[in-house]
What we know:
By secondary structure, this protein is an alpha/beta fold. The chain has helices spanning 56-66, 81-92, 136-142, 159-173, 183-195, 207-218, 225-233, 273-288, 291-306, 318-326; strands at 3-7, 11-18, 22-25, 34-37, 48-54, 70-74, 76-77, 101-102, 110-116, 121-127, 149-152, 176-179, 202-206, 239-243, 248-252, 257-261, 333-334.
Amino acid sequence: MKKIICIGSVTKDIFLAIDESRIIDNSQDITAKKLMAFELGAKVYANHCLEKFGGSAANVATGLTKAEMKAFVFARVKKGEVGNWIIKQLGKIKVKKNYLQKTGDANTAVSVIVSDYKNEDRIIFRTGDSVETFDLTKALEKFKERVDWIYVGSQKNNWQNKLKEVFSFAEVKKAKITLSPSSWQISKDAKDLVAILNKVNVLFLNRDEALELVKNIEGEVEDNPESLLTKILSYDVEVVAITDGANGAYVGNKINKLFLPAAKTTVRETVGAGDAFCSGFLANYIETEDIRQALTWGISNSAGVISKIGGAEGLLTKREMRHRGSLLEDQIKIL
């Protein structure tokens, strides 16, 4: 059984479904093409309010666990009701939480997701922390098991030093690295990020993140996923995957560049779609190193998640991804 460390966030997600938002065209800004607005001072009623666990580390670890891999969550919660609730939820799905730390004064991370089902999109408000106050050095020193891959989700302050630790640890363990950086890292430290991509085996970005990364490095950018894929591959990363929401996803390496449209499904909630793509892609790529088949698993897993509410509710099993992915193979386009 393959073992994967998942470094990133864990959160309590509160979902509010509304149908009174106004979508504003902001297409002059390629990194924020649409805005969600409400009447100032208004009282807006939600259709429902649901609580789920989420966060990059939790979602990806859950997806890999359902794909019959052993995934360890590296994150923190504060002692108390919310932190204990998250730990209990992760325990139910058998994610390895031995390295989930209950420390610090910072509140457990909580997200409030305001979803507009008519427009099939949402905005996320986040508070608390599960990443910055996580003691990565302590966790890595404590980890004595074999590990095959390390997933690093979004980070903020001091992320450069944390990644140096991860790279050193991976070298000792002979583990491979997959990275899904935050928009915060890309906006503030794009040059530092590009400088370490030669040590990354698989890089995950969404289209907006890819645009911002290239724009910050090159000074100008063409809003074209294929061009973005080509440019980011030139930064010496082994495999690049760019998700493009309802359009599908692009993936490439030094040999091939591929595109696969999104799978048809009934959309309930888009939160967690990117994490689901990551875990689905990795569940296959870790075993096969075949970007073609891994792309179909990633797209299938994303479709499963957006058909449910919550970043982990609709994640597929290995058997389900194999079956659904096989039905998508003839839709792959070679770029």
